[in-house]
Amino acid sequence: MVTSLSRRRPALLAAAAAAAAALLAGCTAQAPADSASGSGSAGGAKPLNVAFSVAPTSIDPASGCTLDDARLTMALYVQLLQPGQTTDANGVPSVDPTKAEPYLAKSYEVSPDGLTYTFTLQDGWTFPSGNPVDAAAVKYSLDRTTAVGGCSSSIINDLYSEPTLIKQVTATDATTVTVELSTPDPDFPLALATPAGSIVDPSVVEANGGITAGQPNEWMASHEAGSGPFRLTSFEPGTRAVLERDPNFKGDAPASDTINVSWVKTDSAMLLQAQNGELDVAQGLSKNSAQSLEGADGLTVAASTATANMQMLMPNDKAPWTNEKVREAVTYAIPSQDLLDNVLKGYGELYYGPVPPSMPGYDASVAGPRAYDLARAKQLMSEAGVTGPVEVTLDTISGDANQASIATILQSSLGEIGITVTVNPLSESAWGEAVYGQTTQAALRLDGPAIFNAGYYLSYDERCGSPYNTGVICVPGNAALLDTVRSSSDEAARTAALSQLQANWVADSPKAVLYLDKTAVAMKEGTTYLWNPITDMRTWKSA
């Protein structure tokens, strides 16, 4: 399964391997180790061995589309801001992705009209080349990301285009950067706290291909021009990477000196490595494998919830989904609790609406789960007035065991209401062409946003005619409500608009939301593992 930070632009489909869109997350295993700041003091003496199931397609922060791309990016680069910090109910530190806090920028100010952000940078930070990580580098990096025009541009521009959200970036002096926006956006700081906002060394990029508008930099896809706490000392695409702590990094020193990253593509192989003690952290196990490790000697399984949710896309411009009653019938015909119990092994949560329960603004009064009700589903099909057989081709990602299990259940349950489902397993690239190119009749996808904010996430599906709108959804009145959610500085108005938007969406039944996913991560007991939805390994440390 490939997870996605941003839905791709249609023009990039031919060049990019497509994926199910989602944000995979971890969980707080224990508090992060103390680390010295700015002195290059030693972190953990033992190397940290980490395995993920999917390898990055690019490690260039200006081109990365998926969370799998972002994992190395977060270690190799700094951003102006970073996700906020909080503590859980037990007082254990954790990440709050709904807030942004200083990182390279030690502070920032926003103009009264919300159009100008002025960042004051940390002084004295340098790239490995010796060049300063200064305002000029920040301007170069943000301008470059927008110029490349890929997924990362969509993220730092908070999905605004024509015009882009970022109107102009100015390096006022070495430690002052001003960003002018084309429209007020209270959530802009969250965009800068993602890997898309990473700061690159201009001298390294220019020496290796520079910037070509609308085109990725092939050298940067497998090399780094970093500013972060780690250096990439070895990289075998698709197989392994070695990260070494940069002793000259001026920010907080990471907890580990060395992180050995491997990409293990088969579930059985990752399970065996976790069982044998070869891995400190195993992320990407199937639900069955994760469950099998619960209670195992020397291992801990931590389950966490971000915003990844499994959906059955029913593109509203294609039969039989042009009929609202048919769409609604499907949502009542799916035995969601059975999916949760038997496929997810409890690693999930049920709801029905456009905003996941884990995201601020979720309204449980209108977006609670829809209970399985076969009689109601059959009645809705009768009211729909559909004559003749209803045949649907369901596109899935080949090799995804979870999707295969779900598809089998859908075949059976939808057959009960007269819908014959033909499952069509596709390669990741073919699946992406069908889904993002809006040619699919139906598809399973794991979805979720790069930015933990309802305004950003809803901008995909609540804009009629948007190229990002893979469900071809157009709920009357919701575009205007989204405008209020996105730009209003009145929190009460934003909350009311978001609640009404959810109610409108639920009434329209534009897609089948099956569940909110929980990611299970297996680790050795005593391993320091701090939850972060973008998989930030700075605080991770072996036992």
What key phrases describe this protein's structure?
four-stranded antiparallel beta sheet, Dipeptide-binding Protein, domain 3, 17 strands, eleven-stranded mixed beta sheet, alpha+beta, 543 residues, D-Maltodextrin-Binding Protein, domain 2, 2 domains, 28% helix
Architecture blueprint of SSEs:
Blueprint: E1 48-52, H1 67-76, E2 81-87, E3 93-102, E4 105-110, E5 116-121, H2 135-148, H3 151-156, E6 166-173, E7 176-181, H4 188-192, H5 202-207, E8 230-236, E9 240-245, E10 258-263, H6 267-275, E11 281-283, H7 287-293, E12 299-313, H8 324-333, H9 336-343, E13 348-349, H10 364-367, H11 374-384, E14 390-397, H12 401-415, E15 419-426, H13 428-436, E16 442-447, H14 454-461, H15 478-487, H16 491-508, E17 512-524
Parallel strand pairs: 1-10, 1-11, 14-15, 14-16
Antiparallel strand pairs: 2-3, 4-5, 5-7, 6-7, 8-9, 9-10, 11-17, 12-16, 12-17, 13-17
Description:
The chain is of the alpha+beta class. It folds into two domains: 250 residues, D-Maltodextrin-Binding Protein, domain 2, CATH 3.40.190; 213 residues, Dipeptide-binding Protein, domain 3, CATH 3.10.105.10. Helix content is 28%, strand content 22%. The strands form three sheets. Strands 1, 8, 9, 10, 11, 12, 13, 14, 15, 16 and 17 form an eleven-stranded mixed sheet that branches. It has a four-stranded antiparallel sheet with strand order 4-5-7-6, with helices on one face. A two-stranded antiparallel ribbon has the order 2-3. β4 and β5 form a beta hairpin. α14 runs antiparallel to α15. The longest helix has 18 residues.
